[in-house]
Amino acid sequence: MTLGQWLPLALVCLLGAMSPGPSLAIVTRHSLLSGTRAGVVCALSHGAGIFLWAALMTSGLGAVLLAQPSWFEGLRVMGAGFLLYLGARALLSQDGGVPADRQDPVTGVGKAATEGIVIALSNPKVALFFAALFSQFIQPEATTGTQLVIATTAAAIDALWYGTVAVLLSRPLWSGRLNRYGGLLERGFGVILITLSAGVLGSTFF
């Protein structure tokens, strides 16, 4: 893959990563409520999930998934269910100030890693995005090396973007108010995640 071919791919991947959605909400939540390390770990694990999706789509196996409506709809429902679970857990949180995750870095980082990759793998929009993207950049004669470059580019740009978001949002300017508003932020993210879940379920069944 030449530089002239790679630059448009990188730009489209960056624009895709920057689009708001469940992934941004999860990374933002961990960055604000659990600190820099948790936010960066969430971003890296999300990038790992993106790599798996991209590798699947470049190999052609993703077309099999998209060709099976029941499988794809099942994935949408699973993703919505996970968002609903995260939202409900946030709303039912009993912490009135700084969330428990921030007081226990190990727990916060572990949850961030798990939620980052699960959100990436359970988001059907990622599959649709890569199906459309790679149809423009993958040729039938593309080598395994080219496919690996494309998948790695998508994953690296995704992780770098969300990692940047995590670092910026966890700075003292933002996180210094957590002692007063931590519980409110947690519940606010709960509402956002449940709303996103309802949107996915609505588009699936109606």
Can you walk through the features of this model?
With 206 residues, the chain is an all-alpha fold. The chain has one domain (22-205). 85% of the residues lie in helices and 0% in strands. It contains 11 helices and no strands. The chain has helices at residues 3-18, 22-34, 36-59, 61-66, 69-91, 100-103, 105-121, 124-137, 144-169, 172-175, 178-205. α2 packs antiparallel against α11 (178-205) and α5 packs antiparallel against α11 (178-205). The model is unreliable at 96-103 (pLDDT under 50).
Describe the structure concisely for a colleague.
The protein has 206 residues and is mostly helical. The chain is built from eleven helices and no strands.
Strand proportion: under 5%
**Gap from first CA to last CA:** 42 Å
Q: Are there runs of 5+ residues with pLDDT below 50, and where?
A: 96-103
Biggest β-sheet strands, sense, barrel = none
Structurally, the number of domains stands at 1
* SS-derived structural category: mainly alpha
Number of strands: 0
| C-alpha geometry | globular
What is the radius of gyration computed over CA atoms, rounded to a whole number of angstroms? 18 Å
Share of helical residues: over 70%
- State the helix count: 11
Summarize model confidence as the mean pLDDT: 79
SSE string, helices as H and strands as E: HHHHHHHHHHH
As an assembly, this protein is single chain
